[in-house]
Specification:
The complex is a heterodimer of chains A (about 475) and B (about 260). With about 475 residues, chain A is α/β, with parallel strands linked by helices. Chain A has helices at about 35-40, 65-70, 90-95, 170-180, 200-220, 235-240, 260-275, 290-310, 325-335, 350-355, 355-360, 380-390, 390-395, 410-415, 425-435, 445-480; strands at about 1-5, 10-15, 55-60, 250-255, 280-285, 335-340, 375-380, 400-405, 420-425. Chain A has 16 helices and 9 strands. In chain A, helix 5 runs antiparallel to helix 16 and helix 6 packs across helix 15. By secondary structure, chain B is mainly α. Among the domains of chain B are: about 85-160, no CATH class; about 160-265, no CATH class. Chain B has helices spanning about 1-15, 15-30, 35-75, 85-100, 115-155, 165-185, 190-195, 195-245, 250-260. Chain B is extended. The chains are: A alpha/beta (about 475), B mainly alpha (about 260). At the A-B interface, helix 5, helix 7, helix 12, helix 14 and helix 16 of A face helix 3, helix 5 and helix 8 of B.
Chain lengths: ~475, ~260
């Protein structure tokens, strides 16, 4: 088993390589190959002293070279293919993976890097005759013509004075390696800003924003933003739901799950309470696996409040109990005609528009067709869009979107075009809706106030961080310049 | 000890709340760096979510909507639901193709080998059906639900000649920035360079403005995502601050604290 050692950088290359895989130097031999004795006298760390010398070809595993192991000079020429023996050609081809036809098993997957300096498999190395059968099959590196054929003497400029120092081999190797390598970004963690730059670690940003959201709640700081603005769409959503007859069927597309329920629960809860106040029959469908469970939990919480409201002449719960008990879940189930997970994702949505009972697998008796109203509880703008594209053109039921704040810009054009009958988004949308539902309540619930306060303080902290970061970058660049 | 056992039913009832609180803390502690507890929590959450999906797919879809109707129809000899066998065959094909990918050895190449090639081809049949249905539904839905209504809305709006000066300025600015963005994205650079010098300068400047507007829009998209995550953080903190206070373990800790502090 043999390999070629680059005379310039010392890297090990496959026998038959045209160019060094490490530095790109030309490995094609001008001189006669060296004998094994000459090669054996050259250590791995000491390549040929002259760049014009032939690449060294040396056995990498003496155990597999009986001639060397016995200390005798091999009678076979170094580059003899030995193709004269029967079956040797097939064996030789099998030992050359880069010559095999496509479809054969390769030792590496497409896109893998082929190791250059590591010891190669036995099969990958075989003696190559000086006169090549195929040239250029390596094809991994383009020739580096600038420095690959020059020797030490030519690197010394003739205009330099005689005292000018000649480049050492190490310097030549370094230059060639630098010129052969592709520029690449530094690995993470290696880059350090200059000393004069202010050091800002990423976790600090999260700490600052997190504390800005937490401290106003803990310290009961005031809301800098004051009363939130009521955006267009909230009033219309409230009016549409309020106009529902008692016992109307309302289809709810529950397009969020526990991953985003932190925000969406707060937004959806006032709307669900209102629906329960109107004694609406809820038909809940979700294409998310966690959707039905999320719906059941929120409806149970809202049912508690709705019951308290019906008992207490308009008073709502100021604080929701920790978790609904089994009886509350039972009452919630009674409020929902169906709570179904619809497999198939977006592709299954048209079925809801065509035949709702068949799509949900529920009894059609007592199910109003089409539903009097559709609510889309969406954490993503695409969910509102999918419903308006796949379902609403088929059942023609009016749609109200109840969404997170991030959905608002995407859903707003549908509100403007009249495809949405209402749009409630974000904490401020939920706050406005709750104020419409309970107009006679003078005090703002503590939870709603704390929510808005924390959001405003957090956003202010975010803006401050962005501003300071840009300022630091600008100042740093100017100093560097 | 008595106090603990007295409150234990409440503790058990609120176990989910406390486990959620501890898991939230463990995940949030990743802000201090990557460590075992944060990774463990993520593994548990991913595993539990996948297990839940598997159970749900069986209980809500496969058993009631595929296997039970098939069993009933086969036993009754009713040919109405026998077409479900085709669905089952497609599902088995997809499942088998997935198994081929799961158990593929690292050195094996795609599609090589007899049975691997056959599985790859057969597995592509249900995939092709699903993809074709999704694309067809998506294209038709986009025409019906977005493109036509939005076009009609834009066509009916007309030019706002009677709008206030502020609205007119905003409309003109929006049109100007939109034009710049389109020039930057779509215009041929060589075509711009071939224009007369004055027009070339104007187009370059306009495209530069569009480029900066696109960067600003990308920043806004990122800011929206960041604010959405901030909102989730606030909701999580508020949930724990309000609901943990009502649990038995919290009251137990308060009683212990009162005894220690004498309050």
């Amino acid at each position: 088993m043999t390999a070629i050692r680059c005379p310039h950088c010392g890297a090990t290359n496959r026998a038959g390589s045209n160019f060094c895989n490490a530095c790109g130097a030309d490995l094609r031999m001008d001189d006669a190959p060296l004998s094994p004795d000459q090669l054996g006298a050259r250590s791995a760390d000491q390549p040929a002293p002259s760049a014009s010398a032939a690449p060294s070809v040396e056995p990498t595993s003496p155990e597999q070279d009986p001639a060397q192991e016995s200390g005798q000079e091999s009678a076979r020429p170094l580059f003899d293919l030995g193709l004269a023996s029967p079956g040797a050609e097939e064996q030789w081809l099998a030992d050359q993976p880069w010559l095999q036809a496509e479809g054969d098993e390769a030792p590496w997957e497409e896109g893998d890097e082929i190791p250059a300096d590591e010891p190669q498999d036995d099969e990958a190395f075989a003696p190559i005759p000086e006169g090549r059968l195929i040239t250029g099959v390596q094809g991994l590196l383009s020739p580096l013509n600038i420095t690959s054929r020059v020797d030490q003497q030519s690197l010394v400029s003739p205009s330099l004075p005689p005292s000018a120092r000649e480049l050492s081999l190490d310097e030549i190797r370094r230059i060639r390696r630098l010129m052969a390598e592709e520029p690449s970004p530094l690995p993470a963690g290696e880059w350090r800003p200059p000393r004069r730059w202010p050091t800002l670690r990423i976790p600090w940003i999260f700490w600052i924003i997190g504390l800005s959201a937490f401290l106003p709640i803990a310290l009961l700081l005031g809301n800098l933003g004051g009363e939130p603005r009521q955006w267009p769409g909230v009033q219309e959503a409230y009016a549409t739901i309020d106009a529902l007859p008692p016992g109307a069927t309302v289809l709810v597309y529950w397009a969020y799950d526990p991953a985003t329920s932190g925000e969406l629960d707060q937004v959806a809860e006032p709307v669900v309470r209102h629906l329960l106040d109107k004694r609406a029959h809820l038909v809940v469908v979700s294409t998310l696996p966690g959707g039905p469970a999320t719906a059941r939990r929120l409806v149970a919480k809202a049912a508690l409040d709705s019951d308290a409201r019906s008992r207490g002449a308009g008073r709502t719960l100021e604080r929701t109990p920790s978790l609904p008990d089994a009886a509350t879940f039972f009452r919630a189930d009674a409020r929902m005609v169906a709570n179904v997970f619809l497999a198939g994702g977006v592709a299954a949505l048209p079925l809801i528009g065509e035949d709702l009972p068949a799509a949900l697998g529920v009894d059609a008796a007592g199910l109003e067709q089409p539903p009097a109203l559709t609510l889309v509880f969406a954490a993503r703008g695409e969910d509102v869009q999918y419903w308006l594209e796949q379902v609403q053109p088929r059942n023609r039921a009016p749609v109200i979107a109840v969404a997170s704040a991030v959905v608002d810009p995407q859903a707003r054009p549908y509100w403007d075009s009249g495809q949405l009958k209402g749009l409630v988004s974000g904490f401020d949308g939920a706050y406005s809706y709750e104020r419409l539902r309970t107009p006679f309540r003078t005090a703002t619930p503590q939870s709603e106030r704390a929510r808005l306060t924390a959001q405003n303080w957090g956003q202010i902290a975010l803006l401050v961080v962005i501003g300071l970061g840009n300022l630091a970058a600008i100042l740093g660049f100017r100093r560097e310049a | 000890m008595d106090a603990f056992f007295t409150l234990s039913p409440a503790l058990i009832a609120n176990a989910g709340l406390w486990i959620g609180f501890l898991f939230s803390l463990m995940i949030f502690s990743a802000i201090l760096g990557d460590h075992f507890l944060a990774r463990l929590t993520q593994y548990i959450l991913v595993g539990a979510a996948l297990g839940y999906v598997a159970v749900l797919a069986w209980q809500e879809v496969l058993r009631p909507r595929l296997f039970t109707p098939l069993w009933t129809a086969t036993r009754a000899g009713d040919p109405a639901d026998l077409w479900l066998w085709a669905l089952l065959a497609l599902a088995v094909l997809l499942f088998a193709a997935g198994l081929e990918r799961i158990f593929r050895t690292p050195t094996a190449r795609k599609g090589s080998g007899g049975w691997r090639a056959i599985m790859a081809v057969l597995g592509s049949i249900p995939l092709a059906i699903m993809l074709a249905v999704a694309v067809a539904a998506g294209v038709i839905g986009a025409m019906e639900g977005t493109i036509f209504p939005q076009f009609m809305r834009a066509a009916q709006t007309g030019l706002p000649w009677r709008a206030s000066p502020g609205d007119l300025f905003l409309g003109a600015l929006m049109l100007f920035i939109t034009g710049g963005s389109l020039i930057y994205l779509r215009a041929d650079r060589q075509l711009i360079e071939q224009q007369p010098p004055i027009l070339r300068q104007v187009l370059r400047w306009w495209a530069g403005l569009g480029k900066r507007a696109l960067w600003l829009a990308a920043g806004l998209v990122f800011a929206r995502l960041l604010v959405a995550r901030l909102t989730l953080l606030i909701a999580r903190m508020e949930f724990f601050m309000i609901h943990l206070e009502q649990t038995g373990l919290w009251r137990w800790a308060e009683s212990i604290w009162a005894r220690i502090g004498g309050g």
